[in-house]
Amino acid sequence: MTEDQRLIDIKIDELLEKVIGFHAAGYRLVQIGCTKTDVLEINYSFDKDYNFVNLRIVIPSVDIEIPSVSSIYWSAFLYENEISDLYGIKIKNMAIDYKGNFYRTTVKYPFNPQNTGSSGEGIPS
User: Fold this and answer.
1) Domain topology for 5-92
2) What would the pLDDT profile of 41-82 be if each residue is shown by its tens digit?
3) Cβ(28)–Cβ(46) below 8 Å
4) Which of 3, 61, 103, 114 has its CA 20 to 30 A from that of 34?
């Protein structure tokens, strides 16, 4: 049996309100992931009683700051530092900010669209 999964597209300015709502409703943070397609997308995944819900934010530019959710879900600082280090996305007010030193990479922001061509240059194998 496969459970339904909801995917909710939101804007950056809706993020904290939505995450606070999930926290208040007793959801746990499962993961925060970032991917590069034609644009950058950040997905926040939550679960409660086998009900899996994803919030998706499309990041039009790496010059845009997004708010940290680590004041709501403390462990989010791990995912946020990873996204910041690998994609170059600015995340403000992280509970713990490694300031670009969470991962050691040969290329700064290896998955940042400005560093990678369509052939995947700059992406470590």
Assistant:
1) Beta Polymerase; domain 2 (3.30.460)
2) 999 999 999 899 999 999 988 788 999 999 999 999 999 999
3) yes
4) 3
**Vertex 37: Cα angle to 61 and 120 (nearest 5):** 100
Task: Find residue 33's DSSP bridge partners.
Answer: 43
Residues 6+ apart with CB under 8 A from 96: 70, 77, 81
Neighbours of 35 (CB within 10 A): 12
Nearest-angstrom CA–CA distance, 35 and 39 = 8
**Tens of pLDDT, residues 43-53:** 999 999 989 99
Amino acid identity at 97:
D
Opening angle at CA 34, ends 108 and 46, nearest 5: 145
Domain segments of the chain as ranges:
5-92
State the pTM of this model.
Answer: 0.85
